[in-house]
Write a structure and sequence with these properties.
The complex is a heterodimer. By secondary structure, chain A is an alpha/beta fold. In chain A, 28% of the residues lie in helices and 26% in strands. Chain A has one domain (5-244): 3-Layer(aba) Sandwich (Rossmann fold), CATH 3.40.50.620. The mean pLDDT of chain A is 91. Chain B has 2 domains: 4-200, HUPs (Rossmann fold), CATH 3.40.50.620; 216-337, TPP-binding domain (Rossmann fold, 3-Layer(aba) Sandwich). The longest helix of chain B is centred in the first third of the chain and has 17 residues, at 17-33. Classes of the chains: A alpha/beta, B alpha/beta.
Chain lengths: 291, 339
């Protein structure tokens, strides 16, 4: 079998799992600076599945596609350090404010520029929104079959992919023809760590915008070693319709954002002393909550 | 036309609880919007399915019954719903936030270019003034959900696009029979009008789906643990306490992610919603996503060594102490006091 052409969709997200007490400013808005930007966890699971296919089927390539501000080039570099072959950053002010539908439109336009491909893999959902919508929406826009909630891409035989899905109450093994879009669960294998040789090889990988702040020597180096070029695409590079992007391309509008205000109850404060626990249990037994 | 639609998930000829909960919510929304409630059932051997669905106040039930549709498959199911929605033009369409609804919903929203909001914790009818166009919209669906790690609550609207689509987790809405003898009409969908062979490109090779083993939703006492419990070993104390009280063990997402307990026990926005008469939160800080899944509990006890834990503000009793110290004492004094 000739190698597979695999695209991994990955997102840079604020680390909402580790929201500290300084995450909210005193005026009640979010302090984004206090949240580190990370590789979306399930996208790392997706990358691992892609890299396993690359290991298994010689001649395969893995391309990272991400959309975000300039600093999201970190996501492509992180992918390269772990074994991806190249990457694309979609960045343009016109993408800002996109909901899942507009985002999936932008990604599908970029993927059409990268064609042909065999498999698109992404994480099931991103931790900043937890919607799990972009994967299926990209599949629909590209008229591809989709397999969501994948835990393992088992094999590829005769252009058919066999996939194990992890559902709420069990597993399903399905087969799909290629090309196909697959979204991967957090229950899948963890992503391998950075490879030190790849880290050396790709540490100077940059986008065109990033190069603008570098010296001429650096720019010369990039010209010689084309693998260091992270492709940076804007709206016109991917032939997208601006009306279908950003706020205008988003059917959903945010009407209102409320800060979380806790309605404090009149609570009884107790300690772990025996007499306090004894009091509590007696009260609960007396009012028939327990017992 | 322009009615409220609910997609009904069916496994082994039983309509899923989440779908019945959405029918109850859908009936309420339809009453407010002065329109009908319609349901969609896709599967195999569905002749009797209406008996389960109509009592929730369904006016019209669309059935696609075909051997090839026995198990959920993205392409044929989405093809049927997309074509049905194109014809019926619903104003609101609700799906369970399950592995089925979250696979199907986005596919449909993409095909119909409509807005979809995932994992809503509230659905309310209200008006909207667009700040840019100054246009006023009457009777939109407010889709309310925690966002950004639960630090904010967002109210989402879809002013221009239909259907207004939302997914909701099991247990978030209450299931309530509208009228036992409520009757509506059945429309049988001719599936061959909507399907072609390429829709069956993805095939199910094997399927092992177990009945829900753990059902903490039905338990009136829940002892739930968070990341603060500290270890799988410490979680055994929660099982002991739940056992003597005749309750079940629940967990926050952080505890499930840490591998302390299985996913079936996860409570909160991305787990299940519970309303027990007693909820004992052990080492749970109480992010909004967790609170949205348990705040309607009748009595809440928080056991936490952080006196500032957000959960304490909704607790009836706050025990400032370590889980490993407090729980054995609760077991001890329960045994002493209950006899």
């Amino acid at each position: 079998m000739k190698g597979l052409k695999i695209i991994v969709l990955a997102k840079q997200v604020p680390d909402t799992r580790n929201v500290g007490k300084d995450a909210m400013k005193s005026d009640g808005t979010i302090n984004r600076a206090a949240l580190p930007a990370i590789f979306n966890p399930e996208d790392l699971n997706a990358l691992e599945q892609a890299l396993r296919l690359k290991d298994k089927y010689k001649g395969s390539t893995v391309s990272i596609v991400t959309m975000g501000p300039g600093r999201a080039a970190d996501i492509v570099r992180e992918g390269l350090f772990r074994g991806a072959d190249n990457g694309y950053l979609l960045t343009d002010r016109a993408f800002a404010g996109s909901d899942t539908l507009a985002t999936s439109y932008a990604l599908s336009c970029a993927i059409k520029k990268i064609e042909p491909f065999d498999i698109i893999i992404s994480g099931r959902q991103a931790i900043d929104g937890d919607t799990a919508q972009v994967g299926p929406q990209v599949a629909e826009k590209l008229d591809l079959p989709q397999v969501t909630y994948a835990e393992e891409i088992i094999s590829v035989e005769n252009k058919i992919v066999n996939i194990k899905r992890r559902l709420e109450r069990g597993v399903e093994i399905v087969s799909s023809p290629m090309p196909v879009l697959i979204t991967v669960n957090g229950s899948a294998a963890d992503c391998r760590v950075r490879n030190s040789k790849l880290l050396m090889k790709y540490k100077h990988a940059k986008t065109v915008s990033e190069l603008q702040n570098e010296s001429d020597d650096y720019i010369k180096l990039q010209k010689e070693r084309t693998y260091l070029q992270i492709k940076e695409w804007n709206v016109s590079d991917v032939s997208a319709d601006k009306e279908a992007l950003g706020l205008s391309g988003s059917p959903t509008k945010v009407k209102q954002i409320d800060n979380v205000v806790l309605q404090a109850k009149e609570s009884k404060k107790l300690t772990s002393d025996d007499k306090d626990i004894d009091f509590l249990i007696k009260e609960l037994v007396e009012n028939h909550t327990i017992g | 036309m322009n009615n409220v639609f609910v997609y009904c998930e069916i496994e082994d000829s039983i309509v899923a609880d989440v779908s019945l909960e959405l029918l109850t919510k859908g009936r309420d929304l339809a009453n407010q919007l002065k329109c009908d409630l319609e349901a969609v059932a896709i599967g195999y051997n569905l002749k009797e399915i209406g008996k389960q669905i109509f009592p929730y106040g369904v006016d019209k039930l669309h059935i696609a019954d075909d051997k090839r549709l026995e198990y959920y498959l993205t392409l044929p199911f989405s093809s049927i719903v997309i074509n049905l929605f194109k014809k019926e033009n619903p104003q609101v369409a609700l799906f369970g936030a399950t592995s089925v609804g979250r696979d199907l919903g986005p596919r449909i929203s993409s095909a119909l270019v409509s807005g979809l909001t995932a994992d809503c914790t509230g659905l309310v009818v209200g008006d909207y003034d667009d700040p840019k166009t100054k246009k006023n919209y009457k009777n939109l669906l407010y889709q309310i959900r925690p966002a950004f790690g639960g630090n904010i609550i967002a109210t989402i609207v879809n002013p221009e696009h239909r259907p207004q689509m939302a997914t909701v987790r099991e247990g978030v809405m209450k299931k309530e029979i509208f009228k036992h003898n409520y009757s509506g009409s059945v429309v049988n969908i001719n599936v061959d009008d909507y399907l072609n062979d390429t829709d069956f490109a993805v095939k199910i090779i094997e399927r092992h789906i177990e009945a829900n083993k753990i059902d903490i939703k039905k338990s009136s006492i829940i002892v739930a643990g968070g990341y603060g419990v500290g270890s799988k070993e410490n979680f055994k104390l929660l099982f002991e306490l739940a056992d003597v009280l005749g309750g079940e063990v629940g967990a926050s997402r952080a505890a499930v992610d840490a591998g302390y307990v299985e996913h079936d026990r996860q409570i909160g926005q991305t787990g299940i919603t519970v309303r027990p008469k007693l909820y004992i939160a052990c080492g749970i800080s109480g992010q909004i996503q967790h609170r949205s899944g348990m705040e309607e509990s009748a009595i809440i006890i928080s056991v936490n060594n952080d006196p500032e834990a957000p959960i304490n503000s909704i607790a009836d009793y706050v025990i400032n102490g370590n889980v490993a110290e407090v729980l054995p004492k609760m077991i001890k004094y329960y045994k002493m006091n209950s006899k």
